[in-house]
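Predict the 3D structure for this chain.
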Amino acid sequence: MRLRIATWNVNSVRLRVEQVARFVREQAPDVLCLQEIKCQAGQFPGQAFADMGLPHLRIAGQKGWHGVAIASRLPIEDAPPIEACRNGHARCVSGTVAGVEIQNFYIPAGGDTPDRQANEKFDHKLDFYERLTAETARRDPRAPLVIAGDLNVAPGEFDVWNHRYMSRVVSHTPVEVEAFSKLMNSINLMDVVREAAPEPEKLASWWSYRAQDFRKSNRGLRLDHLLLSPGLREAALRQGAPAARIHDDVRAWERPSDHAPVSVDLGL
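Done. Predicted structure below.
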């Protein structure tokens, strides 16, 4: 079977439920991981998702801020939770679909100052990475695991619009890139989108709202990720090359999120 998993920082699920429905119609994901839903669980538009064909839900909601959810065409079974947020924000949600464990995260952006001592938000971000990496390192690499979400780090030189400039800006600083690398190395995770579009191709999944024409300014960052355990490598490469992509056309829709969805097809 083909299992299509997508991740999207939707920046308010209630505000953008119509965009979500369009994306689901056009791309037919079996599992949709959402970040920044910005509502409590009881406010989540569950009927709209049932109408889309994604009736199975796991929601970690929070009033006004944060919030993550998994919506699925197939039943969602329990998966071991990874509570990587020391502040208790709704930034983590988990589930197992068709035997694949999915961990969906909205990692803190980290504020403006890349200094752990001077900036609590930046310290929180790195602490989140450290906790997540420690938990991931305890997993069996052969088990099917997807780490999905807005991980708020653009890890590579070609994941930012200007490597030299962005190396001084939160999201691409050396300490963040190192934290991302440690997570990747914990069980030899596969960056499936980058595998599908190897460097030096530039990739981005986020563009600031400040730009009137995001394509013209082209100052994007690749902050949204689908990371696969070695146990899913064969499933991702079933067709020879990964069927993984960033749906940057969605960023051009009316009243868009500042993030674009990212998807991968697994042959199970």
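The CA atoms of residues 5 and 129 lie 22 Å apart.
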